[in-house]
Amino acid sequence: MHDSLGYKITRAVVLTLLALFTLYPLWSLFSVSATTASAAGGVFRWIPKTINLHAYVAMWSSVPLLHFLLNSLLVSAVAAIVALPIAILAGYGLTRYKLAGSGVFLRVILATQVFPGVFFLIPLFVLYVTIQDSAGIALDGSYLGLIITYLTFSLPFAIWMLTGYLDTVPRDVEEAAMVDGAGRLRAFFSTTLRMAVPGVAAVGVFAFMTGWGEVLFASVLTNSATRTLPIGLQLFENAQGGVIQWNQLMAASITVSLPVVVGFLLLQRFFVRGLSAGAVK
Amino acid sequence: MAVTSVRDTSTEGGGRGSGPPASGAPKRRKRQIIPYFLLLPAVIAVAIVMVGPMLVGVLMSFLHLNQFTIANWTTAPWAGLANFRIAVNLSEPIARNLLSSLGLTAGYTVVVVGVSWALGMAGAVFLSDAFRGRAWLRSLFLLPYAIPVYVGVMVWTLMFQQNGAVNTLLGRDLHLVSQSTFWLAGSDAFWSMVITTVWRTWPFAFLMLLAGLQAIPREHYEAARVDGATRWQEFIKVTMPSVRQVSLLLVLITGFWTFNDFTTPFIMFSTAPPSSARLMSIEIYINSIVNLNFGLGAAMAVIMIILLIIASFVYLRLLNMRVGDVTNA
Fold it and tell me: How many domains does chain A have?
């Protein structure tokens, strides 16, 4: 293919601008994290005057960062692990059977994205408190309450993506396994699901990301013992005498971003496939 | 409940698979119930955490609910339409603020979704070409979507400070603005939010459009090329029609997300945003949780949802869009 010089220049310019726009905050994040607290609070410099990685050590003791990290890890991981089988079952049912109302179901799934989180916040809170008072199951300020919340908020999109993904996995192998005498569910698990593992993993990462980055419900449903990262990091703004420790805040931000970034980038291909399969139709 | 339905399915499935195909026929009617059990756990979970609170939320919008009555909310005094009347009575500041917040949020959504789509499209089209470094750029472009939302918002908040990176770039280095521009106040606050949200939304558009482009058969482009089409004509005549469905869904989903955005104004301005940054979600949060008028907040949220549902219906109808089709169904 012979592209004109004009096209190649346009492409180079556009892609460079997009790359710079993407990198600009990432570089700022890194640059501020690698300097002293006073320099981080001063005028921004592309390369810090004094390069100092002390923030990466100090951040662990300024606020109970490890505690928040473990809280977030527990809540997000359990929510993702529980969401997956539920979404797989639904995706299996939707793609392998002719179900009356499956179109309606998927439309409802999409429609749940309409509702603003702020609408659910107080009702969910009072429901949790009511259940807690009447049934004695601790939901407000407990891990369980957050887990159920995040599980449900990641579920619609997980079902949407997994349904799309499972729909692209050919049925022949599964049918062949059934002809060979495997039960329907076993045939599904040993063939289709095995082929869909990357897609399932990608959806798992997505479900994990939901809890890992959620702010609104965490601001109401957690207390000092169950506080998750998004709320916990805000404590850097008050730690040590009301001065925002920007260098530590940025260092902590990079640290907590790493696990999801790595997981996401490793699985990006499958993420794209699940996303598009549901949408391209 | 969920466990039972799984076990039922496996026994049923096993029965069918091990028997000869002919014997499957009489069992068919019974088996058609089983697949619905597969959806049951999902339906139950969504019902508990979404439908339940939804009903309570609608109920609350008809109650006088404040810090005193919330503890026994089931016995809170009935308000009828009083909360809704406050929310739409434009002679009072509360309703005027809500209306301006609605306009602001609509503008914010249109700009963020439009720009994100355009950037995503540009990135996806150019990265569909084969050249060196393509895989690196693709991973780079996805980074803002992968990092937690609040981290992205926090770093932009730092950059928009008076001595932050934005003034260093635009003021000190490029001399486009004053070095002491205060970005997080006045009407600039709106654009600061827009840039922050575009930064983390466009990678999602890029991701979906890239997948859409990859699904276009090569022959379509070859045919256009034989006809001597330029790259631009190719884009208009082949690419655009082919990704129409993906684009429409993308605009719908990112539109919902942006319209409902709470994280950006909350992390940037906490509960005291300048008037140019009072998006619907934060406006409702302030009325409900900061001012402790939960009934009014619920009524506002109900109004917001009704408007969103009407808007999405019009959108789906106007564009004759189909959603939720599975090949098998």
Answer: 1
